[in-house]
Amino acid sequence: MITPSEIQKLIVAGIPDARVEVKDMTGTGDHFEIAVVSRAFGGKPVLEQHRMVFSILEKEMQDRIHAVKLKTRTP
Question: pLDDT digits over 20-30, tens only?
Answer without folding.
Answer: 999 999 999 99
